[in-house]
Structure formats: structure tokens, C-alpha cells
């Protein structure tokens, strides 16, 4: 009789219905929130937004562990959608397989000709452009719009002189406030930099020097880097 009475209560609850955000046990279930992301570029001409990847995790509460949502590839317009419970903190990592994108934190200085930045890039790998975290309020049932602004720069391919096994690659812009500041990539094994790319650079004319361990310049180059392009240096 007790079993039948319990079953009857459940049936009645189902018949009369519970609020959408409550379980049968009466425990409140967090509403889900859609986050519509939009990656924007200052120059999107001939750019494939599928070169970006967005990896996200969320934490439902301070005492809860992180839950992996996965990696999301934007559509042809740079848009992507993720869904998380309301009240969560979202942790986001944006990466690129295109080395012409400038690191997010360096973009303001580079665009105002106040700084020079770069990252070493291996073909087939991805580079992390930015980390972002934000809180999704409990009253976000209508969804959240998220804009990620990025900027296009340039890149060039590394071309070591014959016989160079260690030393450094040094480069600087030819004009601007940072023209006398040299960026340096040091290496003790040529295989770590061979056929790699130097990305995230500002467009313009650059000087590149290949320097051995005795500070002797083995080769120098003058490159005209254009926005959104990889300058492929002709090697021996």
C-alpha cells in the first residue's frame, strides 16, 4: 500500500507539473544560458575564421570542480555558441592556427606604434592569443552576447644559414618608436626553430639578423611584412 501511495504522489506531481527548473525531488536546477560569441577582426579580408578555436570550461559554483565544455570552431562569420548553467564562471582560451594574428594583450601598443611583439610558431600547431573568464548571472535567461576583438598583423618564415646549429634570430622594425629595440629568439638546437614562423608582428619593414654564439652576424635580411600575410623567405 505504501509503495502504491508513493507512486500515486509521483504521478500526481507529474500530472500537475513542477516548475521547469525543479527536479522531482524538489531540488532547484539551474537554468541554462546560451552564450553567443563573435570574433571580430580589424581586417577580415580573405580570412578563414575556422583558423580560430575556442576552448571553454565552466564552474557551477565556488565549491564545484571545473567542467569541460569542449573546443568550438567559429563559423565563417566568426560566430560560436556555448551553453552553460546560470550562475557559472566561464573560463575561455582562444587559439589561432594563423600566425598573422597579434596577441590580444600586445595589440594596443603595436597598433599605436609603441611596441613590438612576436611569438614563435610551428606549422600544424596553435598559438594561444588570450585567456578570458567571466561570470554568468542567474538572471541571464535571455542569453549573453560576447564580442572578442582581434587584430591582424604579419609573420615571416625562419631561414637559417647553412651550418648554423645554435645562436639567435634577432629582428626589429625599421621605423617607429621601437626601431632600436631588438627582439631575440635564442636556440641551442637548430631543429627547434628550423622551418618555424615568427608571428604576431606589426606590418612594415623589418630587419632580421642570424647571429652565431660569438655574436657574429651570419646573415641579414630586410623584409616588407604586409598585413595578413606570411613572408616566406627563400632559403638555400
Which architecture name of the largest domain does CATH use? Sandwich
Order of helices and strands: HEEEEEHEEEEEEEEEE
User: Structural class of the secondary elements?
Assistant: mainly beta
Total separate domains: 2
Cα distance spanning the termini: 90 Å
> What is Rg?
26 Å
What proportion strand?
35-45%
CATH homologous superfamily identity of the largest domain: Immunoglobulins
Q: Note the total helix count.
A: 2
Regarding quaternary structure, what we see is: single chain
Overall average residue pLDDT: 84
CATH topology of the largest domain: Immunoglobulin-like
How helix-rich are the residues, as a percent range? under 10%
Morphology: elongated
Q: Report the strand count.
A: 15
Q: What is the CATH first-level class name of the largest domain?
A: Mainly Beta
Would you write up a description of this structure?
With 236 residues, this protein is mainly β. It has 2 domains: 123 residues, Immunoglobulin-like, CATH 2.60.40.10; 78 residues, Immunoglobulin-like. The protein is built from 2 helices and 15 strands. The strands form 4 sheets. A 4-stranded antiparallel sheet has the order 3-2-5-7, with no helix packed on it. A hairpin with a 5-residue loop joins strand 13 and strand 14. The longest helix has 15 residues.
